[in-house]
User: Fold this.
Amino acid sequence: MLEFREFKILDSGSNLITPIKFSFTDNELKEESLECMYEKLNEYEMYLEYDCKGEFNIENKKEIIIEMIITFPSRKVPEDKKELEEFINRHIMDFSEYYYKINKLENLINDNLIAPT
Assistant:
């Protein structure tokens, strides 16, 4: 199950772009699935707005940590605290929905590949 941990606005050294790192964990993701999941996560970039860029990292330490870094044009990142919170929550929900769909699809594929004996 995907769980949101935290977000952090990163310093880009430029006033034109604002990278934001979102951290998630998934205690149900198996080590054998990491490579396949990484490929599917990278496809999420096509769901982002045309002027945004997405990067993903998956770390397998005590728990599996999924980091998503989206680089937005700075003009799109709200400065007001409440608006920023809504902006962050929208992106967390969008990614969570995508993650759920690809995870469900992966489970269906695995279930259909294993024939009953």
